[in-house]
Design a protein that fits this description.
The chain has helices spanning about 5, 10-20, 25-45, 50-65, 110-120, 160-170, 185-190, 225-235, 255, 280-295, 310-320, 335-340, 345-365, 395-405, 410-415, 445-455, 465-469, and strands spanning about 45-50, 80-85, 125-130, 175-180, 195-200, 220-225, 265-270, 300-305, 375, 420-425, 430-440. It is α/β, with parallel strands linked by helices. The protein has a single domain (about 5-469), classed as Alpha-Beta Complex (Amidase signature (AS) enzymes), CATH 3.90.1300. Helix 3 (about 25-45) runs antiparallel to helix 4 and helix 12 (about 335-340) crosses helix 14 (about 395-405). The longest helix has 20 residues, at about 345-365.
Length: about 475
Amino acid sequence: MNPIDLAFTSAVEQAQLIRSKTVSPLELTELYLERIDRLDNTLGSYFTVTAERAIADATAKTEQLAHTANPDELPPFFGVPISIKDLNAVKDVPWSLGVAALRQQIADFDTGVVSRIKQAGFVILGKTATSQLGSLPYTEPPGFPPARNPWNLDYTPGGSSGGAAAAVAAGLCAVAHGSDGGGSVRGPAACCGIVGIKPSRGRISSAPMGERLMGFATSGPLARTVADAAALLDVMSGYIPGDPYWLPDPNPSFLSASRQSSGTLRIGFVTEFDAFGKPEPAWENAVLETAKRLEQLGHIVEARSIPIRDLIDPFTVIWKSSVTSTGIPLELLDPINRWNAENAVPVGTFIQAHTQVHIIARRIISSFQDLDVLLLPTYMHAPLKIGAWADLSPEETLDKVIRWIYPCPPFNASGQPAIALPVGFDKNGLPLSVQLVGKPATESILIRLAAQLEIDRPWSGDRPGFAIS
């Protein structure tokens, strides 16, 4: 297999190649590190590349593999390279949260999800770029190079998991860890033409930290295939003592679900929203065309609406107030995060907003009583050009952010699972995306349906020209 094909081989298949001793962990790690060294000065997908640590880990794993009589007893992703978003701590590795003044801060612990990733046998290549504190849907934090979209380098890969999505799409890691508090996995997946899953609340632990954004935020996988995303979700999932929310482990696994039939589902689709009307025509057409495909695949499909207008104000109150919880001095933050912190509300108002969100979330989930899945655009329009909103005031930026990401935050508020899928490209060669949303704790249904769409019209062979030249 040539190096480019190997770099774009699915993580599940890479794990099998390692088990069969066709490829070693060291060969695979060196391949990705060479690609990062050659391409990432332009792409800006990594804040930190832990090359020496990765080589040492991969070397040890290669030696272990050589002396293992039964490779099937090894962890599921033994020797497969992965990246971690820089909002999560990896012990003894820089942990900046997108704040330039914290670039030399070294974490002294692993977050729970990172521990699970290590236990699964992954080799960590480094920490991927994020917007500052994960608060914006584009990845251009002051003091760092902007992360760029591998499909068109003039455009953003989204945010806040923009570096993770760009790295996966460009073949700079096999799969990636991301996180989503208002679309921060799904949006970058949409911008970069890959798969992103925001799991149900309680599926993935936030240990040893407390809940993020009142339970809105969760880690989630980014991958080039549904099976890879499902398999990484299996790895990341699970209760850790003390978690405020938890769900039972799936049975069968999410990876198994990606290989099962979805059966006939009742699917609603949304192409118009109560607050802002219709998305950009290409994104509306992406939903309509996907709805037709689902109907042709035997599902019951109908137009629906979703009651989310009232969510804007209380969600924004919580989003603004989250900045103050970091304890980072305001002078170290960018203008919009400083503005958020300076406009944080009193505690009583914050609790009232949280109560409002819970009431609205009940309404959202109730609208799924006669549905299995809701289909809607991931974002309202195409990715932005780098720096497009750089000269706007914080108020203007917030308004544009809300209008762009509007279809995503409702399901952070409700805690429902959602998966973003690529469905082609617009006239500028930028990816189009739809998201599938399920009832609480129904990731397996979404994964089965997503896999059916992938089989019907595969996308994993699509590779950005930048990444293969």
